[in-house]
């Protein structure tokens, strides 16, 4: 038995040693790959970069990409260690990837747009946005679609590629908005008196921001009225409440001051050409 083992070793020692060497190298590759994968995933998890949005959906995506990317690289390196020709394998996989990409180009376009939206962060959850003809509060951002809810409660599911291909208005991001409250007075009314009424309304409204400071302007001279406008800034959460209340108060105070809000007028002249 011992003699047989000795003969077997003499005949196959080179093959066995080469195999053990390859297994050892493969084990080292696997250990390094696992440690590198865990290290990079931990780095992503602890990242405080502002480039990663607060929804945190991009972090699991990056972790999965790192894990599977390192796994594929380790597998290719191990195959090379064992003498497998990976060039042909990579060519086949590349061709298959191109075919799949062409078949799923719209889906992959949505995924790519979703990744870009998550990284650049032009909007986040609970922000009010507008793109194209759609607007609403952002409820969910995923790799394929963005979910919105309109002010009247309508559900909108928009493909990410449609959003990325359009300018996006974010009404929430800056934290403040400027409103314009306008009213027309008659030509016979005093502009200075109207200005004083509007200025008193500004002073009485504590929700207007002091910086930028609110102000009153004579915006335009219309066909039947003089248009007086308040321009003032408020916090986003107060915008609509203040806007509605100010419109009501402007009309009431203008009338109490004895100023007139004229109706649109047009003078029509009839010419009798037979005379």
Strand percentage lies at 15-25%
- Give me the strand/helix succession: HHHHEEEEHEEHEEH
Shape: elongated
Give the radius of gyration: 35 Å
Structural class: alpha+beta
Strands of the biggest beta sheet: in what spatial order?
A: 4-3-2-1-5
Structure description:
The structure is a single chain. The protein has 275 residues and is α+β, with helices and mostly antiparallel strands. The protein has helices at 2-45, 58-81, 86-103, 105-120, 160-164, 191-204, 239-256, and strands at residues 128-131, 134-141, 145-149, 155-159, 168-170, 176-185, 215-221, 226-235. A five-stranded antiparallel beta sheet has the order 4-3-2-1-5. A three-stranded antiparallel beta sheet has the order 6-8-7, covered by helices on one side. Helix 1 packs antiparallel against helix 2 (58-81) and helix 6 (191-204) crosses helix 7 (239-256).
Structural descriptors:
single chain, 275 residues, alpha+beta, 5-stranded antiparallel β-sheet, 3-stranded antiparallel β-sheet, 7 helices, 51% helix, 19% strand
What topology emerges from the helices and strands here?
Elements lengths: L1 H44 L12 H24 L4 H18 L1 H16 L7 E4 L2 E8 L3 E5 L5 E5 H5 L3 E3 L5 E10 L5 H14 L10 E7 L4 E10 L3 H18 L19
Antiparallel strand pairs: 1-2, 1-5, 2-3, 3-4, 6-8, 7-8
Helix pairs in contact: 1-2, 6-7
């Amino acid at each position: 038995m011992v003699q047989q083992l000795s003969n077997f070793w003499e005949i196959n020692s080179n093959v066995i040693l080469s195999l053990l060497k390859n297994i050892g190298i493969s084990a080292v590759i696997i250990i390094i790959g696992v440690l590198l994968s865990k290290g990079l995933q931990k780095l992503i998890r602890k990242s405080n970069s502002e480039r990663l949005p607060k929804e945190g959906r991009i972090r699991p995506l990056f972790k999965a990409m790192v894990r599977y990317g390192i796994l594929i690289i380790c597998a290719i390196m191990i195959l090379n260690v064992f003498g497998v020709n990976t060039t042909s394998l990579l060519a086949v996989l590349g061709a298959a990837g191109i075919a799949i990409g062409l078949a799923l180009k719209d889906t992959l376009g949505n995924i790519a747009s979703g990744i870009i939206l998550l990284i650049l962060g032009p909007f986040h959850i609970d922000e009010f946005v507008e793109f194209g003809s759609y607007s609403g509060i952002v409820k969910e951002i995923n790799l394929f679609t963005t979910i919105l809810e309109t002010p009247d409660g309508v559900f909108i599911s928009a493909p990410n590629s449609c959003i990325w291909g359009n300018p996006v208005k974010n009404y929430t991001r800056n934290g403040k908005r400027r409103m314009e409250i306008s009213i027309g007075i008659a030509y016979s009314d005093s502009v200075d008196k109207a200005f004083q009424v509007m200025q008193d309304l500004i002073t009485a409204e504590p929700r207007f921001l002091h910086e930028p400071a609110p102000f009153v302007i004579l915006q335009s001279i219309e066909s039947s009225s003089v248009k007086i406008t308040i321009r003032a800034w408020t916090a986003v959460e107060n915008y609509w409440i203040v806007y509605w209340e100010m419109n009501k108060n402007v009309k009431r105070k203008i009338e109490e001051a004895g100023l007139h809000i004229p109706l649109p007028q047009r003078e029509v002249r009839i010419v009798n050409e037979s005379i």
